[in-house]
Design a protein that fits this description.
The protein folds into two domains: 20-58, no CATH class; 60-250, Putative cyclase (Glucose Oxidase, domain 1), CATH 3.50.30. The strands form four sheets. Strands 1-15-13-7-9-11-12-4-14 form a nine-stranded mixed beta sheet. Strands 2-3 form a two-stranded antiparallel ribbon. The termini are close together. Helix 4 (156-164) crosses helix 6 (199-206). The chain is globular. The chain has six helices and 15 strands. It is 20% helix and 23% strand. With 252 residues, it is α/β, with parallel strands linked by helices.
């Protein structure tokens, strides 16, 4: 069995457009706290050392994460949208398929026709609860500010098309599921069409689904399908998303 890491690091990075701060505590720093827990002196501890620890300040959408319907809007399919702790775990483990759109122009839209053409090219038919992974190549810019603007993205029509095939979890190796914000901003300035604003996310109002953002290493998968994906989110009560260590499992 081979496991391929599909996650970006959780770290302070120019690629994180929203604040993320990590503080690492050394063993020496926590010795007073550990000594207090045990009611002993610091020199009673082995080598006078406590434990290593870390303090992280970030939003639930930092790093690789799974968005819940609650992130998109208060309601989905006419009822209160589910938060991340309410998402069925069965959605988060299943057969994976990678669709390669690295050839598409930066900032362009992935349509349902694009999806079907790529499925035809690789010879795969979607089935309910498959986990569909969109490869744009944006992950190769991780660590740089350019990551935020990289890749192509999904729209309302293509997102709903996947849901209509029985897909509940889908993901992308870019900063967001929609097109980069600059591309949407430019089109809105040109057309004034409000329907394009965050349209792929807002498809979740009509049909319930989750998507992964900030995936990585999809190009390392040896084949486009015949592998499993595991992407269980952290159980953040009432959360709009949950951090996850998404992986592909080959040879199960």
């Amino acid at each position: 069995m081979e496991i391929i890491d599909l996650s970006v690091p959780t770290e302070e990075s120019p690629s994180e457009a929203l604040s993320l701060k990590v503080v690492h505590q050394r063993h020496q720093e926590t010795a007073p706290v550990l000594a207090k827990f045990f009611g002993c002196a610091e020199n009673d501890l082995r080598n006078g050392l406590g434990y290593a620890n870390d303090s992280v300040e970030m939003i639930s959408h930092s790093g690789t994460h799974l968005d819940a319907p609650w992130h998109y809007a208060p309601q989905s399919e006419g009822k209160k949208a589910r938060t991340i702790d309410q998402i069925p775990l069965a959605w988060c483990y299943g057969d994976g398929v990678v669709l390669d759109f690295r050839q598409k122009q930066k900032g362009s839209v992935i349509t349902s026709e694009d999806l079907q053409k790529e499925l035809d090219r690789i010879g795969y038919t979607l089935k309910p609860l498959d986990i569909v992974l969109i490869m744009t190549g944006a992950d190769k810019l991780w660590g740089k500010a350019e990551y935020f603007d990289a890749g192509c993205g999904m729209c309302r029509e293509s997102t709903l098309w996947l849901v209509d095939q029985g897909i509940r979890v889908m993901g992308i190796d870019a900063w967001g599921w929609d097109r980069p914000f600059w591309a949407i901003k430019e089109e809105f300035a040109r057309t004034g069409d409000r329907q394009i604003l965050w349209e792929a996310h807002l498809a979740g109002i009509e049909r319930e689904y989750c998507h992964l953002e900030k995936l990585a290493n999809l190009d390392l998968l040896p084949r486009a399908f015949n592998f499993k994906v595991a992407c269980f989110p952290v159980k953040l009560t009432g959360g709009s998303a949950g951090w996850c260590r998404a992986v592909a499992i080959i040879g199960t």
